[in-house]
């Protein structure tokens, strides 16, 4: 009874336990004082979640979101590297004064984390330089809403002497192990960063996906050791910033696409809040020729060894024998087929337990496959375990080879025991994810009270599993469906646009809501969104010409109203918003 009670307690604890994961979320801004015409860069960094959802910043009322970006990055500080997911929000202030950036709440695995808040001082005009440069003589882009009016402080800035900025000497070089390969053969693609400057941050801003390849990226290390190398007469500090093992899945000419990186270079003379300049560097495309293996399409490619370990050669017929198959080598360990014994009249074969481990070495991605194969013999005498075979294309020998184990003879003795009544002598084999436990027991002694024979005992026993299933379905099925449903996302987005339009008090605030709507619908970036792209999208959605002209008129007049003293009366404002909503509803109905 004690064993069953202990088992029940452990099951309850397993159902209610939470698995801790290191998780961090931080927020930062690039300035604590800016002009009404400037843009604030608000960044939320998340660590400890491989695929985080975008934080909800709708609680921030004093700013409107102009643009958002997502990217992964690692920071190199004194040789120590930290990996994050970055969500960057470009915010435009709505008024002057002390504005609030409220703390953002973020839920992860049942816990709620909160970022810090910020007080931002906003004054009239523009005081924040574009791209870290003050306007000295030639006027740069002041903000997204620069009306190109004369600034009374321009003459003062012209008389100031600009500090000498450092020369940037940073570039990327790539290395590919082979360009002519067999389908399925491993190649290693490495990206190196060469620099004469101090680097504070590197972020990959393009999608790390290579069509036509199975890919396995080398994990980013907590510490990156750079090395010095001479190039073009200069001594550069070199860092390996990305490495990936690629396995072509198609035949023909395949392309490794260009990857774009954002690199922060330390600059003590920069006007930026972080004393750094952001630059961008892009790798070149690389062409790979993938060929098929003559006469043997679909063979695994690599260099492997195979070995079968048998713990004992003599065994009682009532015992269980577990043999271990081990495959090691260089290649695509994650998709390599694992051989097993064919059905045999002399022994029963249970489902093997397979573990795959991979790691990067100088030769590329290597790994080990361990397969525990459990056998139960049906007769006594000498029984032969046949050789296990694996047919591959050896990339080192450049030919097809068959790897095989050595046949093993097992001497089986004894008399097969039979079960007596309701309690078997040989219990069922219980298999877990990684371990196999075998239980052999004789007849159980009769006890005064057998709780395990009572119905309520089994109900309590399976209750933790039911709780686990409900939690799993809710977390990974229902929540995933709600988060990924396109129709629900579109409905939420339109409700947000409609709510924002109905809340507009000033005519100059309409155009930003229109831009947000069409940026989402037409799938173009903020900088590429023009009246022409909006008109093309409306034409594509078969909206009549009069409605198209109405949308463009409202957007244009709203943009002009931001810098014009002329104000629309409330009746005209309400009428335009009402007509605009009718057109947007037409678009939603056709979408």
Shape descriptor reads: globular
Number of helices in the DSSP assignment: 8
Q: How many strand units? A: 32
> Mean of the pLDDT scores?
79
Biggest sheet details: 7 strands, antiparallel
CATH level-two architecture of the largest domain: Sandwich
> In CATH, what is the class of the largest domain?
Mainly Beta
Strand content: 35-45%
- Helix fraction by DSSP (H/I, runs of at least 4): 10-25%
- Rg from C-alpha positions? 33 Å
The order of strands across the largest sheet is 1-3-5-4-13-18-19
* Unreliable spans: 1-5, 7-21, 130-162, 420-447
List the domain count as a whole number.
Answer: 5
Distance between the termini: 64 Å
Q: Class by helix and strand content?
A: alpha+beta
The CATH topology of the largest domain comes to Immunoglobulin-like
Folded structure, characterized:
The protein has five domains: 24-159, Immunoglobulin-like (Sandwich); 170-291, Immunoglobulin-like (Sandwich); 301-444, Immunoglobulin-like, CATH 2.60.40; 453-484; 486-590, no CATH class. Mean pLDDT is 79; it is low at 1-5, 7-21, 130-162 and 420-447. A hairpin with a 4-residue loop joins strand 31 and strand 32 (436-437). It is built from eight helices and 32 strands. The chain has a seven-stranded antiparallel sheet, with no helix packed on it. By secondary structure, the protein is an alpha+beta fold. Helix 1 runs parallel beside helix 3 and helix 6 runs antiparallel to helix 7. The longest helix has 30 residues, at 455-484. It is globular, with a radius of gyration of 33 Å.
């Amino acid at each position: 009874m004690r064993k069953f009670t202990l088992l029940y307690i452990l099951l309850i604890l397993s159902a209610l336990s939470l698995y801790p994961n290191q998780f961090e979320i931080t927020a930062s801004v690039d300035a604590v004082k800016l002009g009404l015409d400037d843009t604030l860069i608000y960044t939320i960094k998340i660590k400890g979640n491989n695929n985080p959802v975008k934080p909800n910043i709708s609680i921030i009322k004093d700013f409107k979101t102009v643009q958002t970006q997502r990217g992964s990055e690692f920071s190199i500080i004194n040789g120590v590297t930290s990996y994050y997911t970055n969500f960057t929000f470009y915010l435009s202030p709505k008024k002057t004064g002390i504005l609030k950036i409220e703390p953002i709440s973020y839920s992860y695995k049942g816990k709620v984390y909160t970022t810090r808040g910020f007080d931002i001082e906003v004054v009239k005009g523009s005081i924040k330089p574009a791209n870290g440069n003050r306007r000295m003589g030639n006027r740069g882009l002041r903000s997204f809403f620069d009306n190109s009016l004369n600034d009374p402080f321009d003459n003062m800035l012209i008389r100031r002497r600009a500090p000498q900025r450092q020369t940037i000497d940073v570039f990327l070089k790539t290395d590919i192990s082979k360009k002519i390969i067999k389908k399925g053969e491993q190649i290693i693609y490495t990206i190196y960063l060469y620099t004469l400057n101090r680097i504070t941050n590197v972020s990959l801003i393009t999608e790390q996906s290579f069509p036509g390849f199975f890919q396995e990226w080398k994990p980013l290390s907590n510490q990156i050791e750079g090395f010095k190398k001479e190039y073009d007469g200069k001594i550069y500090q070199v860092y390996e910033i990305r490495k990936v093992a690629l396995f072509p899945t198609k035949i023909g000419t395949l392309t490794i696409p260009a990857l774009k990186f954002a690199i922060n270079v330390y600059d003590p003379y920069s006007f930026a809040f972080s004393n750094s300049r952001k630059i961008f560097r892009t790798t070149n495309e690389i062409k790979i020729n993938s060929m098929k293996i003559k006469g043997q399409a679909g063979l695994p490619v690599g260099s492997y060894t195979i070995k079968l370990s048998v713990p004992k050669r003599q065994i009682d017929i009532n015992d269980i024998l577990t043999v271990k198959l081990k495959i090691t080598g260089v290649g695509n360990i994650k998709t390599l087929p694992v051989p097993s014994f064919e059905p045999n009249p002399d022994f029963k074969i249970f489902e093997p337990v397979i573990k795959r481990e991979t790691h990067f070495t100088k030769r590329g991605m290597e790994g080990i496959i361990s397969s525990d194969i459990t056998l139960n013999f049906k007769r006594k005498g000498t029984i032969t375990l046949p050789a296990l075979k694996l047919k591959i294309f050896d990339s080192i020998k450049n030919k097809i080879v068959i790897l095989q184990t050595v046949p093993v003879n097992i001497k089986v003795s004894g008399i097969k025991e039979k079960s007596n009544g309701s309690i078997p002598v040989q219990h069922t084999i219980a298999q877990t994810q990684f371990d196999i436990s075998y239980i052999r027991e004789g007849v159980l002694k009769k006890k005064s009270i057998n709780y395990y024979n009572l119905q309520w005992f089994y109900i309590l026993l399976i209750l933790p599993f039911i709780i686990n299933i409900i939690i799993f379905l809710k977390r990974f099925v229902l929540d995933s469906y709600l988060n990924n449903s396109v129709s629900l996302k579109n409905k939420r987005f339109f409700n947000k646009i409609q709510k924002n339009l109905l809340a507009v008090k000033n005519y100059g605030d309409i155009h930003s809501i229109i831009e947000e709507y069409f940026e989402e619908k037409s799938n173009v970036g903020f900088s590429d969104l023009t009246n022409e792209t909006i008109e093309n999208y409306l034409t594509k959605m078969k909206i009549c010409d009069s409605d198209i002209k109405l949308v463009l008129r409202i957007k244009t007049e709203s943009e002009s109203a931001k810098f014009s003293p002329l104000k629309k009366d409330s009746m005209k404002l309400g009428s335009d918003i009402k007509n605009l909503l009718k057109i947007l509803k037409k678009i939603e109905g056709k979408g």
